[in-house]
């Protein structure tokens, strides 16, 4: 039997790009994610890469963030880039949608966006099947940081503000700490 902590470390190990990559091209089948003009002062947009990804839930848990409505926030060239945290479910459909979003970003079509990372929201209780764990590892390579958010049965049952299990609270704290580092680096360079 495989040690689940070893699997978790492999899935969430940061390894991907935080800026567009030269030579990456996208093929627009299905049009990719939508876009909207962002003239707001939102510090962090939480973007679900598909419906029911957990965009609103994760946004509610992260201070100073707003849900992006499954669209990339596009800002004017003379404004600081929008920081975006992508969210997907750990189903095949969810992981593939996050992969497409990573390719769309890497192609350089979103110069006013900085991707902070990806949150993998559990789509069911228990351990991921091997094929989905493998796909999650591949998808994780397209993001600078990746975090797992566990299954919380109370959300499924409609409890809007359940007590967060320790693992979920730790994930939210880790994301918050990471985003604080990004903000401090930005302020130090200004």
Estimated helix fraction: 25-40%
Tally of distinct domains: 1
What's the mean pLDDT score? 84
Overall CATH architecture: 3-Layer(aba) Sandwich
Strand order of the biggest β-sheet:
3-2-5-6-7
- SSE class: alpha/beta
Which CATH class is shown?
Answer: Alpha Beta
Apparent shape: globular
Number of strands: 7
Task: Spell the H/E element sequence.
Answer: HEEHEEEHEHEHH
Stretches where pLDDT is under 50 for at least 5 consecutive residues are: 1-11, 23-29
Our estimate of the beta-strand percent is: 15-25%
Question: Can you walk through the features of this model?
Answer:
This protein is α/β, with parallel strands linked by helices. Helix 1 (4-12) packs parallel to helix 4 and helix 3 (92-106) packs parallel to helix 4 (130-140). It has helices spanning 4-12, 55-61, 92-106, 130-140, 153-156, 166-189, and strands at residues 34-37, 44-48, 65-67, 71-74, 82-89, 113-121, 146-149. Strand 2, helix 2 and strand 3 (65-67) form a beta-alpha-beta unit. 37% of the residues lie in helices and 19% in strands.
Short description:
The protein is an alpha/beta fold and 190 residues long.
List the helices and strands and how they pair.
Layout: H1 4-12, E1 34-37, E2 44-48, H2 55-61, E3 65-67, E4 71-74, E5 82-89, H3 92-106, E6 113-121, H4 130-140, E7 146-149, H5 153-156, H6 166-189
Parallel strand pairs: 1-4, 2-3, 2-5, 5-6, 6-7
Helix pairs in contact: 1-4, 3-4
């Amino acid at each position: 039997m495989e040690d689940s902590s070893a699997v978790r470390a492999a899935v969430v190990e940061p390894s991907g790009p935080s800026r567009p990559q030269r030579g990456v091209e996208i093929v627009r089948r299905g049009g990719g994610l939508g876009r909207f003009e962002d003239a707001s002062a939102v510090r962090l947009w939480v973007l679900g890469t598909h419906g029911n990804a957990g965009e609103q839930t994760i946004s509610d848990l992260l201070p100073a963030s707003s849900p992006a409505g499954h669209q990339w926030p596009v800002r004017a060239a003379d404004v600081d880039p929008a920081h975006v945290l992508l969210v997907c479910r750990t189903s095949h459909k969810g992981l593939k949608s996050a992969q497409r979003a990573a390719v769309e970003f890497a192609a350089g079509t979103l110069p006013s966006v900085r991707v902070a990372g990806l949150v993998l929201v559990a789509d069911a209780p228990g351990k991921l099947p091997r094929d989905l764990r493998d796909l999650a590892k591949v998808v994780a390579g397209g993001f600078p940081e990746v975090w797992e958010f566990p299954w919380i049965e109370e959300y499924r049952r409609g409890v809007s503000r359940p007590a967060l299990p320790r693992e979920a609270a730790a994930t939210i704290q880790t994301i918050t700490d990471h985003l604080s580092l990004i903000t401090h680096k930005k302020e130090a360079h200004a």
